[in-house]
Amino acid sequence: MGCFDGEAQLGADRQYMGGEYGSSIELARSFAKELGMKYFAISRTDSDGHVFAFNEMRSTPKSSDSGCDKPCLDNDNYKCGCADELCGSLKPGKGEANVRRWSTYEVIPKKRSKRASKTEL
User: Fold this and answer.
1) What is the number of H-type helices and E-type strands within the chain?
2) Helix or strand or coil: residue 113?
3) What is the largest CA-CA distance in the chain?
4) What is the pLDDT of residues 107-117, one digit of tens each?
5) Which of 25, 44, 51, 107 has its CA 20 to 30 A from that of 36?
6) Cα angle, residue 73 at apex, residues 72 and 76 outer, rounded to 5°
7) Is 106 in contact with 45 (CB distance < 8 Å)?
8) CB of 68 within 8 A of CB of 101?
9) Residues 39-82: pLDDT tens digits?
10) Angle (CA) 92 93 95, round 5°
11) Is 70 in contact with 86 (CB distance < 8 Å)?
C-alpha cells in the first residue's frame, strides 16, 4: 500500500507486536489476520522489529526514501521498512521520537487451491 515515516500516521485502533514478527512478512500478516485487522505496517531492525495491525488508516502513505525499501528476512520480494540503526542516517518523521519506516500492506486472504477445496469437503 505504501510507506509511512511515523507511527502516528497509522490507524488509531492499532495493536502492536514485536520481535520476529517485525522482520517476517508472513508472521506480520498472520498477526493481523489473527486479530481480524485489515492492514498491517512493518518496521524491521535486524532479525526482529515492530508490526502494527489496524483497520483504518489516518492518512495516505507518503514516504519513499531508502528506508522503505529494506527487504523482509523471510521473503525479499516484500519490503519490511526499517527501524533504528537499519535506517542509517534517516531522520525520524515529523513529531516522532524514533526512526521508523513502516511498509504497509492490506491483508488479502490466500486463495485456496482447487485440489484442497475438493478434499476438504
Assistant:
1) 2, 6
2) coil
3) 54
4) 987 676 555 44
5) 44
6) 55
7) no
8) yes
9) 999 999 989 999 999 998 887 777 788 999 999 999 999 999 99
10) 100
11) yes
